[in-house]
């Protein structure tokens, strides 16, 4: 397994490198003292594991995890014990090591990585999405009305109905968010809350827990936030 | 605080690897005074939040040097600094001085 180490402290990187040297299956390819350089490297190289410090100035380890479209397995290394629960909301994170890291604990992390690599194949294969055209027909009072995908701003679940907000007018349709989600192109639409699917291209700005589309503020649920962040073309 | 730093963790990590042990001690000797300087500069400049960032790094050094009490103290101090409170500065400096003196002996 090839790996990289990302930590702004030289001493911390030296420790992880020494621990890696005790694991014959691990090959340290590169070290980085900041997340930005690591992201650039990861975008160009296939890496199995990243040992990643959370607490770095500017761009943090969590930012790195959220930014990568197809992150490798991540082992977080940190002095903070209170981030552990939050950390596991990211699928790529397989373990969380509190500094100073002992050899015994490091060995457990390596076993977890091996299990993760064995169970979950690397998600680098692009899923084929069916060609579903550029529009959608909705049934309103026995009339089939054509909506172009690029007219849709967002869709909100309202009990047994959904409301489709468009550039022009809203449409109320008797169906579920789950059903309409299957009809929408994944590249353009994203569910960011249990009651909201948004047209990704219509976002004006994003705050911590909400996105702005036209004049509507739409909540982002905690569980959907990583996927939203992953899709952003962050500078 | 009477706690004294030691190299137990580093020696355990190094095992028979004397080269790593020496290299690591050299890293600590380089990195620690730099971080202390950054901390002191932030305190003088009345930048407690920035100081908390470097305390975060320094507390890792405390744990590497097996100073558990100092580590716990630093965790609390880091939180204080984040809220703009520098009251524990003098006690923190005592820990820094203890380590600085120790690093001169190894």
- Extract low-pLDDT stretches of chain B: none
Portion of residues in beta strands of chain A equals 25-35%
Number of strands of chain A: 15
Number of domains of chain A: 2
Textual characterization of the structure:
The complex is a heterodimer of chains A (235) and B (106). With 235 residues, chain A is α/β, with parallel strands linked by helices. Chain A has 2 domains: 2-119, Response regulator (Rossmann fold, 3-Layer(aba) Sandwich); 135-231, LytTr DNA-binding domain (OB fold (Dihydrolipoamide Acetyltransferase, E2P), Beta Barrel), CATH 2.40.50. Chain A has 7 helices and 15 strands. Chain A has helices at residues 10-21, 35-42, 61-67, 84-87, 103-119, 177-183, 225-231; strands spanning 2-6, 27-32, 49-53, 73-78, 93-98, 135-140, 143-148, 152-158, 161-166, 170-173, 189-193, 196-199, 203-206, 210-213, 216-219. A 5-stranded parallel beta sheet of chain A has the order 2-1-3-4-5. Chain A has a 5-stranded antiparallel beta sheet with strand order 10-9-8-12-11. In chain A, strand 13 (203-206) and strand 14 form a beta hairpin. With 106 residues, chain B is mainly α. Chain B has one domain. Chain B contains 5 helices and no strands. Chain B is elongated and about 45 Å long. Chain B starts with 7 loop residues before the first helix and ends with a helix. The model of chain B has no long low-confidence stretch (mean pLDDT 95). The A-B interface holds A 8-12, 14-15, 18-19, 55, 57, 79, 99-100, 102-103 and B 9, 12-14, 17, 20, 23-24, 27-28, 30-31, 53, 56-57, 59-61, 63-64.
């Amino acid at each position: 397994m090839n790996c990289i180490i990302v930590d702004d402290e030289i001493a911390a990187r030296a420790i992880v490198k020494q621990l890696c040297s005790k694991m014959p299956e691990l090959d340290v390819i590169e070290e980085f003292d900041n997340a930005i350089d690591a992201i650039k490297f990861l975008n160009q190289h296939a890496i199995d594991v990243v040992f990643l410090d959370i607490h770095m100035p500017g761009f943090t380890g969590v930012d790195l995890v959220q930014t990568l479209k197809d992150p490798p397995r991540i082992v977080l290394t940190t002095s903070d014990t209170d981030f552990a629960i939050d950390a596991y909301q990211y699928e790529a994170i397989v373990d969380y090591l509190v500094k100073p890291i002992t050899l015994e604990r490091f060995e457990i992390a390596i076993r977890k990585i091996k299990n993760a690599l064995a169970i979950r194949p690397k998600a680098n294969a692009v899923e084929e999405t069916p060609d579903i055209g550029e529009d959608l027909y909705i049934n309103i009072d026995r009339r089939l009305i054509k909506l172009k995908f690029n007219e849709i701003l967002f869709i909100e679940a309202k009990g047994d109905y959904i409301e489709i907000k468009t550039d022009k007018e809203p449409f109320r349709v008797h169906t579920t968010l789950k059903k309409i989600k299957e009809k929408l192109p994944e590249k353009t639409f994203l569910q960011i809350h249990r009651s909201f699917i948004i047209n990704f291209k219509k976002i004006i700005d994003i705050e911590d827990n909400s996105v702005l589309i036209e004049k509507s503020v739409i909540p982002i649920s905690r569980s959907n936030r990583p996927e939203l962040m992953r899709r952003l073309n962050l500078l | 605080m009477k706690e004294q730093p030691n190299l137990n963790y580093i020696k355990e990590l190094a095992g028979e690897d004397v080269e790593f042990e020496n290299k690591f001690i050299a890293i600590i000797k380089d990195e620690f005074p730099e971080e202390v300087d950054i901390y002191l500069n932030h305190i003088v400049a009345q930048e407690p939040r920035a100081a908390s960032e470097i305390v975060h790094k320094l507390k890792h050094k405390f744990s590497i040097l097996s100073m558990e009490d100092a580590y716990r103290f630093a965790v609390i101090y880091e939180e204080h600094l984040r809220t703009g409170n520098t009251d524990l500065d003098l006690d923190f400096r005592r820990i820094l001085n203890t380590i600085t003196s120790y690093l001169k002996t190894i």
